[in-house]
User: Which sequence fits this backbone?
């Protein structure tokens, strides 16, 4: 609770600091606040507790996701001073909005009440609509904002509809009540199925599952890179955490499992196949995040309440997967910004050309993070995918997993093609300029990806 | 400890090269020293071998998923380690005369590859095996992508995707098999070998596992990446691919298929032998028609590997022993042949037979060495290939006379295309070319290789003593055929 309040207040403090228009103090204050919040969470690590009349439940799952999101946000904010240095926008507001959105993410990781789910979802989303339009004079940014807002509103409406239907059955917003209702014999019927389905639609929108993924490439491309990074990482973690809490309490009845399988297959297919043809790096990362959603959905799919304690294995896998994915993505987007500056604002995959000659260490970092996303051994991405393999096979989804294997193969292809660019001779004349802070963040992300790949026990 | 040194020496030497970026001569010297060190270690292991499998390191990694760090070897693993260690000095040595580019980087990549290959042959845990299996691919991938020949990009990507497809299928099988072990799950080979999966499962699990190895060797019909890749790759890359990485497929068959899916192996035995032999004949015929020396060697490699795969699946002592013995002989042969191809390319400027011929009078010593190597390629007695071919032929004969007949045809075809190649490269009217005979450095490579050919040819027991005990162990585990 104190952490939630702390982050919210921190956002307000950011707004006030904005009055003095001293950009350089913003990031340090925000990061200090985030560190304090991490400390608050870490002290309550093993003590599950309820808040707000058990509308929130801070169990191990929620705590690890919360700390993960805070860490990633802190890394992104470390990138902030450099990113915002040459921008004239309202920087303080951007930090504040990201912090507010982060609060939504924290709530999504810990809700145990459908009303709170809705609130968390909106708290996460609304700042993002504004953030996506951060580049006020850019057409693409405006398009991104509007598109995200309209589609997001639809998704919210669907979710609200689903919550209403579920409420009509149980007479309560409490997830525990819902679980009881689901466990009771004869729990099926149109209302229930539609209720579950609509809530899943809303959640699937946020993680970009196909066919609710159309916003992703445009919004990722149009938004300022820092915001894109935030969306691809923290929002993804929040979305998946929220998804898991809902699925876990329903026990995954057959009707839901059927639509989840279709979602999973479509997401894996469309995400990976579309990514093959992308030449714009931000769009590539958008489709890559869609494809990773597919693997995460596959893990979610196995949470059918078959065995006691299975849910926590799924939750652990989801956390490991999203956290290491976020680490790699954060580092890659920072590298992308550096390369973009060196190439006069170009965003195609070729901007990494010459990186190996200019800065071998950064090229190796790029390689390591891309290999992690691709799931090559010794990186965290491999362990993450292997956990999904184990879950899916253990739950008997052999054919779906076989399909996932094929799609993982496609994934390796497009990541490798980007990695290859870095080792080609340079084309442009621009130099890769790396501030010391950015270098540290990229290195941290790389070390994280490799270390968690070698010692997965640290996160599981 | 010694096994860990095998992993760490090339790794450290490679990292040193990357960090220091020394001049070409120093880089090669350092790489060569490192490979000679590992060679000394493996030769000592070979000398000390007493027929008992060794487990040198056993450490928990992530116990919940069966991931453990277990390093060790049995005779077959040791054979593979020796093969890797013996050949790598020659691979590095090739760089002296036939450099491909930035020496520090190339040698670092090669050393990383060596470390990964050592890892593959030492891993006693399936996931660890898989990790090294994939890691060995990455240095080669960059080597090919950077310094390949024509169409390098398309060919390298195809090769990479092909092998990764096999790899992912293997990972899927490992995950499946691991989950079948009693909790707490373990992916150790010993635990997986104790599994008794039902026949229906083994029938499909066999293919998801075998796919990886069939692509790696490669055998028909999973071979389409191979001729292009071998032809396009720089000589050192081709050597590593054909002489050692192809053997990972053979090794995989022995450590995965026989122990884990014996019923599946028995079920598919005839089919696999049939496609292997067909592929071998097919490759031999194509090799005969090649106008490009390097492609001819590539197809000959595929032809030999097809025969070896067929012999392995006969599942009798002759077949398995011969197939495993032949991995060593074939590895040495491939390094010899691709070295000669590179040497000719350096002088003639292409790999086409049309540009060669009539060189014997100008290069008499080289012609002699080449002839001896060709003798090895066509399994002349006293060369190292002869005992292997004889054993494999025997193994096939025991199983099925018709298959043995195919083996004989294969040997004849092999003799035809190799002698024909020799003729087109060396014989004919004198070309009056300006270049000279093999020089000192080239002798330094070829003479030891030829010496190995005859040493092992005269004393095949040097190699066979390694595989005897493990092959007996495998044979004892044959299930009653369905």
Assistant:
């Amino acid at each position: 609770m104190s952490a939630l309040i702390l982050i919210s207040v921190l956002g307000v403090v950011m707004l006030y600091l904005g009055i003095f228009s001293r950009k350089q103090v913003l990031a340090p204050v925000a990061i200090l606040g985030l560190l304090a919040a991490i400390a608050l969470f870490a002290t309550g690590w093993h003590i599950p507790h309820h808040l707000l009349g058990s509308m929130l439940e801070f169990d191990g799952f929620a705590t690890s996701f919360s700390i993960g999101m805070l860490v990633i946000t802190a890394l992104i904010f470390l990138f902030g001073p450099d990113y915002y240095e040459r921008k004239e926008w309202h920087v303080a507001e951007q930090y504040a909005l990201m912090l507010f959105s982060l609060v939504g993410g924290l709530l999504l990781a810990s809700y145990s009440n459908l009303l709170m789910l809705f609130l968390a979802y909106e708290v996460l989303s609304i700042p993002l609509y504004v953030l996506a339009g951060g580049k006020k004079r850019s057409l693409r940014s405006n398009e991104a904002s509007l598109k995200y807002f309209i589609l997001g509103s639809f998704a919210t409406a669907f979710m609200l509809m689903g919550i209403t239907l579920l409420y009509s059955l149980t007479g309560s917003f409490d997830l525990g009540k819902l679980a009881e209702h689901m466990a009771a014999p004869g729990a099926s019927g149109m209302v229930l199925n539609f209720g579950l389905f609509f809530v899943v639609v809303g959640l699937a929108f946020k993680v970009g599952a196909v066919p609710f993924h159309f916003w992703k490439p445009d919004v990722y491309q149009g938004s300022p890179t820092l915001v894109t990074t935030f969306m691809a990482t923290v929002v993804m973690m929040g979305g998946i955490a929220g998804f898991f809490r809902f699925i876990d309490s329903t026990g995954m009845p057959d009707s839901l499992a059927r639509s989840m399988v279709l979602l999973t297959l479509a997401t894996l297919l469309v995400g990976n196949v579309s990514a093959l043809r992308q030449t714009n790096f931000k769009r590539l990362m958008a489709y890559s995040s869609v494809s990773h959603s597919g693997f995460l959905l596959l893990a979610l799919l196995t949470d059918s309440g078959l065995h006691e304690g299975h849910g926590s294995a799924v939750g652990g896998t989801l956390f490991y997967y999203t956290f290491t994915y976020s680490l790699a993505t954060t580092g890659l987007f920072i590298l992308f910004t550096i390369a973009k500056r060196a190439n006069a604002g170009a965003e195609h995959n070729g901007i990494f050309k010459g990186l190996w000659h200019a800065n071998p260490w950064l090229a190796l970092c790029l390689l390591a993070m891309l290999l992690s996303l691709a799931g090559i051994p010794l990186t965290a991405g491999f362990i993450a995918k292997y956990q999904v393999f184990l879950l899916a096979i253990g739950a008997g989804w052999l054919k779906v997993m076989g399909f996932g294997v094929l799609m993982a193969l496609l994934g390796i292809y497009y990541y490798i093609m980007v990695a290859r660019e870095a080792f080609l001779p340079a084309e442009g004349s621009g130099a890769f300029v790396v501030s010391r802070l950015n270098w540290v963040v990229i290195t941290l992300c790389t070390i994280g990806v490799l270390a968690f790949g070698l010692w997965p026990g640290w996160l599981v | 400890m010694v096994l860990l040194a095998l992993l760490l020496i090339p790794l450290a030497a490679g990292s040193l090269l990357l960090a220091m970026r020394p001049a070409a001569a120093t880089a090669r010297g350092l790489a060569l020293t490192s490979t000679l060190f590992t060679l000394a270690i493996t030769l000592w292991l070979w000398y000390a071998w007493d027929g008992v499998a060794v487990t040198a390191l056993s450490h928990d990694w992530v116990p919940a998923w069966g991931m453990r760090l277990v390093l060790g070897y049995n005779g077959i693993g040791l054979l593979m380690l020796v093969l890797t260690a013996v050949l790598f000095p020659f691979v590095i040595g090739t760089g002296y005369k036939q450099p491909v580019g930035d020496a520090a980087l190339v040698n670092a990549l090669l050393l990383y590859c060596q470390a990964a290959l050592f890892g593959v042959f030492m891993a006693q845990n399936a996931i660890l095996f898989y990790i090294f299996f994939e890691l060995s691919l990455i240095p080669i991938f960059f080597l090919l992508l950077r310094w390949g020949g024509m169409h390098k990009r398309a060919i390298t990507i195809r090769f990479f995707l092909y092998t990764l497809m096999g790899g992912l299928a293997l990972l899927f099988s490992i995950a499946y098999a691991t989950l079948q072990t009693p909790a707490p799950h373990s992916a150790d080979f010993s635990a997986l070998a104790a599994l008794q999966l039902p026949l229906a499962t083994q029938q499909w699990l066999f293919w998801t596992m075998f796919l990886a190895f069939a692509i790696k060797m490669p055998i028909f019909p999973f071979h389409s990446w191979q001729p292009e890749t071998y032809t396009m790759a720089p000589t050192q890359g081709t050597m590593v691919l054909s002489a050692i990485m192809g053997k990972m497929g053979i090794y995989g068959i022995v450590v995965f298929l026989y122990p884990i899916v014996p019923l599946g192996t028995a079920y598919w035995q005839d089919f696999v032998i049939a496609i292997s032999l067909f592929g071998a004949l097919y490759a031999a015929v194509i090799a005969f028609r090649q106008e490009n020396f390097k492609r001819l060697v590539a197809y000959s490699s595929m032809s030999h590997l097809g025969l070896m795969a067929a012999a392995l699946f006969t599942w009798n002592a002759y077949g398995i022993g011969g197939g495993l013995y032949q991995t060593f002989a074939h590895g040495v042969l491939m390094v010899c042949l691709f070295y000669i191809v590179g040497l000719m390319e350096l002088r003639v400027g292409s790999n086409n037979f049309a540009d060669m011929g009539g060189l014997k009078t100008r290069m008499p010593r080289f012609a002699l060495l080449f002839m001896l190597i060709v003798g090895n390629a066509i399994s002349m007695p006293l060369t190292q290939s002869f005992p292997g071919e004889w054993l494999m032929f025997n193994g096939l004969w025991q199983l099925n006379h018709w298959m043995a007949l195919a083996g004989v045809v294969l040997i004849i075809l092999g003799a035809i295309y190799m002698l024909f190649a020799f003729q087109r490269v060396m014989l004919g009217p004198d070309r009056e070319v300006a270049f000279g005979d093999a020089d000192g450095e080239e002798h330094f490579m070829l003479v030891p290789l030829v010496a190995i050919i005859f040493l092992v040819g005269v004393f095949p027991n040097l190699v066979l003593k390694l595989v005897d005990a493990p092959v007996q162990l495998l044979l004892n585990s044959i299930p009653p055929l369905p």
In short: DSSP finds 19 helices and two strands in chain B. The CA atoms of residues 203 and 267 of chain B lie 7 Å apart.
